């Protein structure tokens, strides 16, 4: 298995590089920094522009290298950033990208490039927002009982253990909805059973965790509501959030599961998407 962390370096990547370096140092991994010069269309005179942009990109990578204390390689590529970073993920243990999102009211959410990179990547992807997260507490993981959420749990538990943080396991259930039923009053027995079933599913998922991480503190959260809203609310003030996403079909490559996509659209903290 590869022990390389690939970092996509662009304008909002300083925090992404810092995060990747900290993880690489803790786990004995190497780093590859990749910058992609995109947008070329073959216009007359474009060659010199591309060459200058590539040179500037290499200068940026060299500045990062000068501050990094782990084995590092660099590449400057030209073409489609989405395609190149997805291709680079094939041989990586982890792909890390930055985001220009700075929180509610502070600018745009990450655009389509980030969503497509996460959707198509062949390894877990960590998206690092442009936020000061040093004071965050805990690693939040979304659990729904699926096989992919088990892999998200494994990733989140390892990160919580590495960081010396508690693990916050979040499972969300949503009452059945139907046209003209948005204001329905549900029977108490139905609501109680939904809560109980979700608690049981979460308990099964967490059952073997103590044997792998005997010192890990686990906080269990089971709530009614909409998953992305509750996960992001819990992720505010956390060191990291971890979610699973299903498959890489032709559709899913560009449309993540709605929960993952909604969480990424309004990043509350460093967020990992695991398959």
From TrEMBL:
Gene3D superfamilies: HUPs. Residues 1-129, 139-274 form the UspA domain. It comes from the Bacteria. InterPro entries: Rossmann-like_a/b/a_fold, Universal_stress_UspA, UspA. Keywords: ATP-binding, Nucleotide-binding. Belongs to the universal stress protein A family. This is Universal stress protein. It comes from Microbacterium memoriense.
């Amino acid at each position: 298995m590869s022990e390389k962390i690939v970092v996509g370096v662009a304008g909002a990547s300083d925090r992404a590089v810092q995060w990747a370096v900290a993880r690489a140092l803790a786990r004995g991994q190497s780093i590859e920094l990749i910058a992609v010069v995109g947008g070329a269309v073959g216009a007359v005179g474009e060659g010199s522009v591309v060459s200058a942009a590539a040179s500037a990109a290499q200068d940026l990578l060299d500045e990062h290298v000068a501050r990094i204390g782990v084995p590092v390689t660099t590449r400057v590529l030209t073409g489609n950033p989405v395609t190149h970073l997805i291709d680079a993920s094939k041989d990586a243990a982890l792909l890390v990208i930055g985001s220009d999102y700075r929180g509610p009211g502070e600018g745009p959410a990450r655009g389509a490039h980030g969503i497509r990179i996460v959707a198509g990547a062949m390894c877990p992807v960590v998206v690092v927002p442009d936020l000061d997260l040093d004071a965050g507490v805990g690693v939040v993981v979304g659990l729904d009982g699926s096989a992919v959420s088990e892999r998200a749990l494994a990733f989140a538990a390892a990160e919580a253990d590495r960081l010396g943080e508690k693990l916050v396991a979040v499972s969300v259930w949503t009452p059945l909805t139907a046209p003209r039923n948005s204001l329905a009053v549900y029977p108490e027995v139905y609501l109680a059973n939904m809560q109980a079933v979700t608690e049981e599913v979460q308990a099964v998922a967490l059952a073997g965790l103590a044997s792998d991480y005997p010192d890990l503190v686990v906080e269990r959260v089971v709530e009614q509501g909409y998953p992305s809203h509750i996960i992001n609310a819990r992720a505010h003030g956390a060191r990291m959030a971890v979610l699973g996403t299903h498959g890489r079909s032709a559709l899913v490559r560009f449309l993540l599961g709605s929960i993952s996509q909604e969480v990424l659209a309004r990043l509350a903290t460093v967020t990992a998407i695991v398959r």
